Amino acid sequence: MPPPRILFLDQSGALGGGELYLLDVARAYANTSHVVLFEDGPFLDRLRAEGVSAEVMEVGESVHAVRKEAGPRALLSALPGLTQAVCRLAHRARDYDLIFANTQKTLFMGGLAGWWSARPVVWNLHDLLSPEHFTATTRRLAVWGANRLASHVIANSQATQRTFTDAGGRLPTSVVYNGIAPAPFRAVGPAEVAHQREQLGLGAAPVVGVFSRLAPWKGQHVLLDAVATLPNVHILLVGDALFEGDDAYAAALRRQAEEQGLSDRVHFLGFREDVPTLMRTCDVVAHTSVSPEPFGRVIVEGMLAERPVVATRAGGALEIIDHGATGWLVPPGEASALATTLRDLLAAPDRTRSVAAAGRRAAEARFSPTQMLLGIDRVFQKICPTSSPIPLPDSVCSSDHVCKQT
Ligand code: UDP
Ligand code: GLC
Fold first, then answer.
1. DSSP conformational letter for 388
2. What is the predicted pLDDT for the residue at 405?
3. How far apart are CA 108 and CA 37, in angstroms?
4. Coil, helix or strand at residue 3
5. What are the C-alpha distances in Å from 61 to residues 16, 64, 79, 82?
6. pLDDT digits (tens, 9 = 90+) for 37-77
7. Residue nearest (by alpha carbon) to ligand 1 atom 14
8. Between 3.30.497.10, 3.40.50.2000, 3.20.20.70, 3.40.50.1370, what CATH number should domain 6-180+368-398 receive?
9. Quick check: CB of 17 below 6 Å from ligand 2?
10. Which atom of ligand 2 is nearest to the CA of 157?
11. Quick one: 210 exposed, middle or buried, by C-beta within 10 A (0-12, 13-18, 19+)?
């Protein structure tokens, strides 16, 4: 029996958390699967560089223009483009056992293609279907579409799963957490950290890093407000504006840093590929989302880097951090509470070190790539019982202690 043949779909060419997750999943099924994106970008290059067969399907501007808040007019003008893309996807899907939709737009297009080609569809839900993130109409539409077009929903956290069922989702659901390989974090030694500090001109200053794309709901402005009250503390702002409309926020952050007299202490580093090194260069890793985070890969990564992690108390963060035992939680959007916690952590490195070590152990045990792949494969096995379980790649096993236990 061969492993299942999966047609993976994602609308984005950028490297957001959902795409980095799909990169790891698609790599594990690379021998039998294919990825279709609706947009060119660094995600396509990374997939191909890692041996995954992938292509960009041209869907036209009108289809790209259908976004979260798009009204009936945008939908109507996208109809010809959508129909054409669905036909092409349905044709492609005939060579595969299963369609895996990694985003909302691909749920609809992949869902219709699945119906047409009689292929089951799994939707991986990466977003909280909650009022902070979506309008009531979009939430209803997403759940209505999933109930009719998909067979199973994989949610990236219990919080995400709950919003689906609370909004009327009736499909079987499974929670599969993102799994992150610990090896790149373990590999960063003191010499690299010293080199990085020198390159950034940090001297002996305390450093707090935030590693999210620049977007209003990721709340980097709260960290600037907090650090304005903490003399000498430097901030690494790692990440870029990845999605439509976020450029204005990136510009506002730069203005804010200038107005608060923080320009020489705030380092805008843009999108970086060396997150493990940069995290280990920090004294504290902060996660500052002001709306609930659906999951939060960066929280797990900060723990794997064995750094004290402060995250906002909402959404997926509550499932990752045990406050005071493996990290710290602060109320979202409250700069003064964040400043107080940062001040305490920076003042007591010995106490925080043991929590950071417990955080690393918890992250390695609970968010491993093996657990993620086994969780996904269980869903695939249910839907395609004639396929064989996934052969776990050596690259995963060598960096993942859970491998040998399962
Ligand atoms: N990331 C990265 N380079 C950057 C900033 C972020 O590679 O400059 C990665 C980060 O390490 C994490 C992902 O982007 O794996 C962000 O995922 P998360 O789930 O935290 O948030 P999302 O952006 O998906 O909402
Ligand atoms: C989405 C969510 C983020 C999550 C990621 C991977 O981008 O915003 O919280 O960690 O998907 O599931």
1. P
2. 39
3. 14
4. coil
5. 21, 5, 12, 11
6. 999 999 999 999 999 999 999 887 777 777 766 666 767 77
7. 17
8. 3.40.50.2000
9. yes
10. 12
11. buried
The per-residue pLDDT for 61 is 76
Position of tokens 């940062």? 342
Contact 377, 383 (CB under 8 A): no
Q: Where in the chain is the domain with CATH 3.40.50.2000?
A: 6-180+368-398, 183-365
Instruction: Decide if 270 contacts 242 (C-beta within 8 A).
Output: no
To test the pocket of ligand 2, the residue of 10, 12, 19, 21 to mutate (highest count of ligand atoms within 8 Å of its CB) is: 21
Rounded CA-CA distance 278/238 in Å is: 9
Amino acid at 286: A
Selection from 201, 235, 200, 267 nearest residue 335 by Cα = 235
Please tell me the distance between residue 20's alpha carbon and the centre of ligand 2 in angstroms: 9
Ligand 2: atom nearest CA of 294 is 9
Element housing 56 (H / E): strand 54-56
Class of domain 183-365: alpha beta
pLDDT at 406 over 80: no
What is the DSSP pairing of strand 328-330 with strand 98-101? unpaired
Sequential DSSP letters for 258-324? HHTT-TTTEEEEES-S-HHHHHHH-SEEE---SS--SS-HHHHHHHHTT--EEEESSTTHHHH--BT
Residue 254 has pLDDT above 80, yes or no: yes
